[in-house]
Amino acid sequence: MPPRKIIIDTDPGQDDAVAILLALASPEDIEVLGITCVAGNVPLDLTSKNARIVCELAGKPQVRVFAGCDRPLGRDLVTAEHVHGKTGLDGPDLPDPGMPLQDGHAVEFIIDTLRAEPAGSVTLCPLGPLTNIATAFEKAPDIVAKVQEIVLMGGGYFEGGNITPTAEFNIYVDPQAADIVFRSGVPLVVMPLDVTHKALVTKRRNDAFRALNTPAGIAVAQMTDFFERFDKEKYGSEGAPLHDPCVTAYLIKPELFTGRHINVEIEVTSELTMGMTVADWWRVTDRAPNAMFMGGIDADGFFALLTERLARL
Ligand code: BDR
Ligand code: CA
User: Fold this and answer.
1) Domains of the chain from N-terminus onward
2) Which atom of ligand 1 is nearest to the CA of 84?
3) Which of 43, 99, 116, 249 sits a CA distance of 20 to 30 A from 281?
4) Radius of gyration of the chain (CA)
5) pLDDT, tens digit, for every residue of 80-137?
6) Bridge partners of residue 257, in order along the sequence
7) pTM above the 0.85 mark?
8) Which residue in 84, 105, 243, 261 is the catalytic one?
9) Could you tell me if the CB of 123 is within 6 A of ligand 1?
10) Share of the chain above pLDDT 70, in %
11) pLDDT of residue 229
12) What is the mean pLDDT of residues 53-72?
């Protein structure tokens, strides 16, 4: 099978960085057509800088990186420096990027790419708020039917939320955008907190990254060390969840994940539960299924894949 063509839409973020590294280390499975950046964990100027830092860390300065939307569709931007640090990539000491940002807006790149490629051949991989994707769908409705699949990190059901009691960060930051994407009719694969909270960077797994003794392996160990402090304290767990790499791991080894094809809708009205992913896990409504909502992961298999692929960089 030829590698799957993807666009990574991202707000790096240490876990976004690991997701990007996994994709760039896996050319036989994944062809990265471009990386589109969005405001999320940190403002857009930093996410679009961080994405380029990560491409250079992977030794792939030829990857095209675009800056996109700098704020959510209808709300003020909420960021997460309390988790990711001031730069969004705190932990390792990585050089400023030498590679340029591409000219043009990320949304235009998404639209142009989907129009140029054969229908059903491009997968979108959002790792942050869904602002760029929703904006592209609103501006160019003809591209919606051309998307092969959207595989995204966002939401949570049994685990509740991580930024409010009921909302996960990516969905909470731009619930209107998420609503547009979840209603778009594009086949969705969702990696919610229910999965990512089972993908914990334990000491043993962190040591395995560091033991690669390569710039990428050491940087990943330092990045995960950094954001671990916050999550370990918060959850009292033996390691922090590695959210976004679940998306790129799914593209390589979907059998690592289990879930249910169910209806998932986004709360966009109530301030109390704004951004909640209302997942009909128990199929108690007759609302049509629109998403493969994951719940289980083979965590050892996931970390083995990650470590093996990072070793190539
Ligand atoms: C998501 O929010 C961000 O902080 C992470 O990068 C991840 O995409 C987890 O809720
Ligand atoms: Ca992210």
Assistant:
1) 4-310 (3.90.245.10)
2) 4
3) 249
4) 18
5) 999 889 999 999 999 999 999 999 999 999 999 999 999 999 999 999 999 999 999 9
6) 297
7) yes
8) 243
9) no
10) 100
11) 74
12) 98
By residue count, the chain amounts to 313
CA distance 88 to 11: 9
Termini Cα distance of the chain? 23
pLDDT of residue 264: 98
* Ligand 1 centroid to residue 120 C-alpha, Å: 27
Phi/psi at 37 (5° precision): -105, 150
Both structure tokens of 235:
């959850």
Asked if residue 153 has its Cβ within 6 Å of ligand 1, the reply is yes
> Is residue 34 within 8 Å of residue 257, measured between CB atoms?
no
SS3 track for the chain = CCCEEEEEEECCCHHHHHHHHHHHCCCCCEEEEEEEECCCCCCHHHHHHHHHHHHHHCCCCCCCEEECCCCCCCCCCCCCHHHHCCCCCCCCCCCCCCCCCCCCEHHHHHHHHHHHCCCCCEEEEECCCCHHHHHHHHHCHHHHHHEEEEEEECCCCCCCCCCCCCCCHHHHHCHHHHHHHHCCCCCEEEECHHHHCCCEECHHHHHHHHHCCCHHHHHHHHHHHHHHHHHHHHHCCCCEECCCHHHHHHHHCHHHEEEEEECEEECCCCCCCCCCEEECCCCCCCCCCCEEEEEEECHHHHHHHHHHHHCCC
Check if 243 is active-site: yes
* For residue 282, pLDDT beyond 80: yes
pLDDT of residue 234: 73
Q: Do the beta carbons of residue 101 and residue 68 sit within 8 Å? A: no
